[in-house]
């Protein structure tokens, strides 16, 4: 399917709407590279622009980016009116809707005829005809639109026209043109009257000073509002970035809490298992107590309740008890020394004697443990030889 032909210049908004509906619904190699969710808004922006400025008409054409890429895009081509020296002129330009429109601002280029030249060192137009105005720099979706853009361009170019006729010997307009029914000599030749894009409107109109002041005030208010919106947009972006950072921190803490809860659950399960084991042992002890209740005399010697199994065990028990007794005695002497109950010389004398005694107990305990281990090894070897035979 071939791309639809653009509507002729001066066509109605209905013809432009039909053209835009067909162009935006194209598929295949002639499909326009706009997002599906923005095509309806793009059509509305262009229709509103054509209704407000009939001298502009939509069409599709190839646009070449700075990196050499060529893409088929929508553009609004034609002229926009300006007022300079109380005379209406038309500025020829093209408004290109790039791929990310309306999220990103359009690109605006002047279309000077061979009889025109771009004003050197213009504050808003470079030598290639590319337009840079505050409205484009402060473009904010979805508040910004094409109608307000053209209105801003008309106001800026009325104050400082970007195009002049090549026949004009003095390309710089008067700094402060005086409003009058007749245009100044140089201003009358700003554009070539023979150019189809720079024809004057029929008649020379004189505007009321109050109307001019009102329009200028409205444009300044609009620019201030756009600047405020851009500032709010940047502030909201910073706030969103902060919220994203807080969200990431909360997610990290959520993971830490989940890990802690998982560890506590595992620890709880381990404690429950230990509790079950303790309860089982307690039941065994209670059963033993019930079975043996009444079999033991009411009064018995606590020291003789547990009897060592052999002579080595008895000696080891006595050495361990003596070692612990000496340890308790030394601790008591330390407390007495700290409280000042005994003199230091007596403390040192007793500690020296007790330490010597404790050393012999521990040395004997070490020998008894070694002998016990040797006895167990010998017993195990004897049982192994008995089983082997």
From TrEMBL:
Protein's UniProt keywords contain Protein transport: yes
GO aspect biological process, one term: endosome to lysosome transport
Biased composition (Pro residues): 170-186
Superkingdom per UniProt: Eukaryota
GO annotations of cellular component type: ESCRT I complex
InterPro entries: ESCRT-I_UEV_domain, ESCRT_assembly_dom, SB_dom, UBQ-conjugating_enzyme/RWD, UEV_N
Keywords: Coiled coil, Endosome, Protein transport, Transport
Molecular functions per Gene Ontology: ubiquitin binding
Subcellular location, record wording: Endosome
UniProt keyword Zinc-finger, yes or no: no
Coiled coil: 254-281
Pfam families reported in the protein's UniProt record: UEV, Vps23_core
Residue intervals of the UEV domain: 23-167
Domain (SB) ranges: 310-378
Region (Disordered), start-end ranges: 161-189
Family membership noted in the UniProt record: Belongs to the ubiquitin-conjugating enzyme family. UEV subfamily.
UniProt-recorded name of the protein: Protein ELC-like
Natural source organism: Dendrobium nobile (Orchid)
């Amino acid at each position: 399917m071939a791309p639809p032909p653009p509507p002729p210049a001066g066509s109605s908004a209905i013809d432009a709407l039909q053209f835009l509906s067909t162009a935006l619904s194209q598929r295949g190699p002639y499909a326009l590279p706009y997002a599906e969710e923005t095509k309806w808004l793009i059509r509305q922006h262009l229709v509103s622009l054509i209704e407000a400025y009939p001298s502009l008409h939509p069409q599709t054409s190839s646009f070449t980016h700075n990196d050499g890429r060529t893409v088929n895009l929508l553009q609004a081509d034609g002229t926009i009116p300006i007022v300079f020296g109380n005379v209406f002129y038309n500025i020829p330009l093209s408004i290109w809707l790039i791929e990310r429109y309306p999220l990103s601002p359009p690109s605006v280029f002047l279309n000077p005829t061979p009889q025109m030249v771009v004003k050197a060192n213009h504050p808003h137009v470079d030598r290639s005809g590319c337009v840079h105005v505050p409205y484009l720099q402060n473009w904010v979706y979805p508040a910004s639109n094409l109608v307000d853009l053209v209105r801003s361009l008309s106001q800026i170019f009325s104050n400082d026209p970007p195009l002049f006729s090549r026949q004009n010997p003095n390309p710089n307009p008067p700094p402060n043109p005086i409003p009058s029914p007749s245009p100044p000599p140089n201003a009358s030749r700003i554009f070539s009257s023979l150019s189809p894009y720079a024809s004057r409107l029929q008649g020379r109109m004189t505007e009321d000073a109050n109307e001019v002041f009102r329009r200028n005030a409205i444009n300044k208010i609009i620019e201030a509002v756009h600047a405020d919106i851009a500032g709010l947009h940047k502030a909201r972006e910073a706030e969103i970035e902060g919220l994203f950072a807080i969200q990431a921190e909360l997610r990290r803490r959520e993971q830490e809490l989940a890990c802690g809860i998982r560890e506590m659950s595992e620890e709880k399960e381990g404690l429950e298992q230990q509790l079950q084991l303790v309860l089982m042992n307690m039941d065994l002890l209670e059963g033993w107590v019930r079975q043996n209740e009444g079999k033991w005399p009411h009064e018995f010697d606590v020291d003789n309740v547990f009897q060592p199994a052999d002579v080595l065990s008895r000696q080891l028990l006595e050495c361990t008890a003596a070692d612990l007794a000496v340890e308790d005695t030394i601790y008591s002497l330390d407390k007495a020394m700290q409280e000042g109950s005994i003199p230091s010389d007596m403390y040192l004398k007793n500690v020296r004697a007790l330490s010597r005694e404790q050393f012999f107990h521990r040395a004997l305990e070490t020998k008894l443990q070694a002998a016990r281990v040797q006895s167990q090894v010998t017993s195990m070897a004897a049982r192994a030889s008995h089983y082997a035979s």
